[in-house]
Design goal:
The protein has eleven helices and eleven strands. The protein is an alpha/beta fold. The chain has a nine-stranded mixed β-sheet with strand order 1-2-3-5-4-6-7-8-11, sandwiched between helices. Strands 9-10 form a two-stranded antiparallel sheet. The protein is globular.
């Protein structure tokens, strides 16, 4: 339940609301924000421990031409009260229910990191509601479900506690010259996630990568643009990509989505939409002009 906010510059309208995505209105209300004109729908999907605010640069730049829907996924941000499961499948189910509640068709879904998985699953399960996809710095963290889960749990357990692991993991997502006022709030937000919820979310994600990602990518019929800026090695250390560099994940995309457009962004961290906002906007706009939208 929410309220309309004053019209933004250019005549766009900002609305913040929560809507039930199940019969349990009290606990299963997902928080979302709509900003923009009566143009085509853009749906911004955040990553693990993240929130709608990570897309503010894109929403600000694009709301005069598009209807921008940004969401806080189950257990995060304004949807923090929602109970589990905290899984890729559940998040896709929640979003599809939200699309139905808002009457959304032919949207372009823009997912960051874990949000890439959620967007891909939405496109396969609800193709009439999804016209195109933009994958922002996705990855595939393993090819065998049990091995992938064991590896990430072992990496967590090598640290004194989950927040310490999270501090290292998220700290590696930024380049050295990232301002503290950008980096610190994102790291602290991630560290604040309850330990059991973080373990469930990341364990499910890496299992999903290994068990479902290749087949899910093969089933995507919509046009896809990939904006990639980092790679994470077997040691779980993340680094920026070099010009012309490829990765196992990008090779997976090429093999399973052969018509995908791939844009490698160099010299920035994992939060490409924050570090290189104009490049992400350009990728969205380039895709938007090629797909049917309502």
């Amino acid at each position: 339940i929410g309220a309309a906010h004053p019209r933004a510059p250019g005549g766009s309208l900002a609305i913040q609301k929560s809507v039930s995505v199940s019969a349990n209105m009290a606990t299963d209300s997902i928080h979302y924000e709509v900003q923009g004109s009566d143009g085509p729908w853009l749906v911004f999907i955040p990553g693990l421990t993240c929130s709608a605010s990570d897309w503010q640069s894109q929403v600000t730049a694009m709301k005069d031409q598009y209807r921008c829907l940004s969401v806080d996924l189950r257990g995060n941000g304004g949807s923090v009260q929602m109970p589990g499961p905290y899984t890729v499948d559940q998040d896709a189910q929640d979003l599809i229910a939200l699309f139905q509640a808002l009457g959304i068709r032919n949207a372009i879904l823009i997912g960051h990191s874990r949000g890439v998985r959620v967007g891909a699953l939405c496109a396969v399960r609800a193709p009439q509601q999804v016209a195109g996809l933009v994958f922002v710095d996705g990855s595939q963290q393993g090819t065998d479900p049990a091995t992938a889960r064991d590896a990430v749990m072992s990496a967590i357990d090598e640290h004194p506690d989950v927040p310490t692991f999270v501090r290292t993991m998220f700290g590696d997502m930024f380049v050295p010259d990232t301002p503290d006022d950008v980096k610190v709030p994102i790291v602290e937000r991630a560290m604040a996630m309850p330990e059991s919820r973080f373990r469930e979310s990341i364990g499910d994600m890496v299992e999903w990568d290994a068990a479902k990602m290749p087949d899910m990518f093969r089933q995507i019929d919509q046009p896809v643009t990939v904006v990639q800026s980092t790679v994470m090695g077997p040691d779980r250390v993340r680094r920026s990509l070099h010009a012309g560099e490829t990765t196992p994940y990008l090779e997976l995309v090429r093999a399973t989505i052969p018509n995908a457009t791939i844009d490698v962004v160099t010299g920035v961290g994992h939060f490409t939409q924050i570090d290189a906002p104009a490049r992400v906007c350009q990728a969205i706009e380039a895709l938007a002009v090629t797909v049917p939208t309502d």
